[in-house]
Amino acid sequence: MPDPILELRGVTKTFGGLTAVDDVSFAVTRGEVFGVAGPNGSGKSTLFNCITGIPFGPTGGEIHFDGTRIDGRRPHAIFRAGLSRTFQKDAEFPDLTARETAALGGHYGGGLRGAELRDAAEEALDLVEFDVVRRDMRTADVSVYGKKQLMIASALASKPSVLMLDEPASGLTRPEIAALDRLLLQVNRTGVTILIIEHVLGLLLSVSQRLLVLNQGSVLTEGDPQEVIRDPRVVEAYLGGAAA
Q: In CATH, what is the architecture of 1-82+161-244?
């Protein structure tokens, strides 16, 4: 594989007698959008948690980021190395302004301060098309889609090499999902590698260059998104064998 920036080798996560992630291996190429799909309970978010160390790392296996092994490192060290993420539940600080919310990521993840931090926050807000008029609004007063923009902007303010998105389309309308689709491709064109978990398959198929499907903690298949989605094993996992 040419120039992998993130590589998982036999990653496993157990909770007592439950194996939530089972011997998962894959590599993400620098500059691509790599999608991860799977039914509810397939281990997608647990896998993200293992990669970032929030709130836990893997039980076994290795994770390499930009040539360095990162499993076992503290979450803030992983973040500052250039791997940033969002969460299924919007991380909201209701009394902070949009600008302040975006700046949090630049400070925590990039260690930025002063003018450099303010510039990074503004650039991130520009990139996610968060208009200037709303930037002094309280986060609590921002729309659902606006909160998604802010969450992504906060992750981008640290200037990561890899952006990990955990179900960013959750709760959005169809027009908002279309706007998110355009936004993610715009972010990717700046050189940011994207690893995305999503239940909205239309979004995954549109933005991903490659797609991996998890089922019961294991890799079911990986490859070209259009081929993957037609795989009978994927149909079985999602629909119990019913025709799509």
A: 3-Layer(aba) Sandwich (3.40)
